[in-house]
Hints:
This protein is globular. The chain has helices spanning 2-5, 11-25, 29-37, 41-47, 54-68, 77-85, 88-98, 102-116, 120-128, 134-140, 145-159, 163-172, 178-184, 189-202, 211-226, 231-244, 251-257, 260-267, 273-286, 290-302, 306-313, 321-333, 354-364; strands spanning 175-176, 206-207, 370-372, 397-399. The longest helix has 16 residues, at 211-226. The chain is mainly alpha-helical. The protein has a two-stranded parallel ribbon with strand order 1-2. It is built from 23 helices and 4 strands.
Amino acid sequence: MLIVLLESKSEKIQFVAAKALSTLSCGAPKHQAKIREAGGVLPLVRMLKGSFSERVLLAVINTLAALSIGLAHTPVKLNQSAIASGGAIKSLVSLVSGNTNDLVKVHSAYALACITLAHPDNQKLLLKEKFTFTLLIDLLYSSVREVSLGAGRALTTFAYNHIPTQKNIVKGGEIRYEQFIQFLESDDQEEQGHAAFQVIILARVMTGEDHVLVMAQGIQILYQLLQSENELIQELAANNIASLAHTRAGIPAALVSVGAMDKLIELLNSPAELVRSSAATAVGYMTFNRGAMRILLTACRRSPGLFQILQDNLAAGKISDVFIREWEYCLTVGLPSQSVQLMAVEHAIVDVGDSSQSTLMNHLKTTTETIDTPTYDTTVTDDMFDVSSTHRYTSASSVIMQ
Length: 402
């Protein structure tokens, strides 16, 4: 029904239909598949070339982005391929370079980043269009906060777990750390959450500050936002941590060191469904780190119903097979009473402050040499754990920015 409404002659109906499709698609695998199977992709792609109001065009662009990317920055391959086959990449590149509205430009760039995320064929199509990052980097310095943050989001998604793109970003222009300070220190927690994630991902291509310090600041901010009383901010922080949990080696251990795993486990009992879902996704990905896995195992032994809560809210997220085996072993030998004193688990939970800085920095220093490139359909096994307690989705790691 919504797809049919896209072809309405009423601008208001077009907008409502596109906006509804975008909302339905966000992090919802079933809805993403249903929209594609119902033939919703081509009408949306065709609308990129039509004469529509800016709000309709933005809603269409955002829907294509939402259809292409899943929870924790995982690609929706079938949708990405269908969107690219319809000619969306060429149209979106034209919007980035030729539209007069800067918001349309940055949203189009973000859609391109989502469509090409971990999709080599689509990345080749984008290269054929001679897309460069110069204009997008210029927009990062816009005086309009929404445009600046939008440009940062697009750059971050392009750079996510993709070294060749990070090198191309460097060629496109200078990304200065100082541009993000206004958002990192903002009174708006949503701006803080977005900027913290962006500086962690873009730290290696930034100038003006040591990238380890930049990542440490971003991680500390996300941990603080997990403790917000605003459920939307808790959800945002948990979603960002879920994405970070399968990026560079060292980041999951750094998140453990500031206490993020414990707070995420606490949020599994949130009264808000979206917070529980986001926290469960983050917890699941964090279990590929040994330290985080031990924390969760201990928590589940102390609260036997916790594992079921995690399963009920995990949705399309992933959880370590190693953790599952360990938990099944615990069930086999019998759970201890909650009143029994459990053996201490070797993990450091430290206050965010001077005492935590050295631990956090030591973990983040491992990001200077390697970056993980996840394969999203790989079964994780014991031998994929490395000696630094950070996971590998694949055994190969590439040297970044030599």
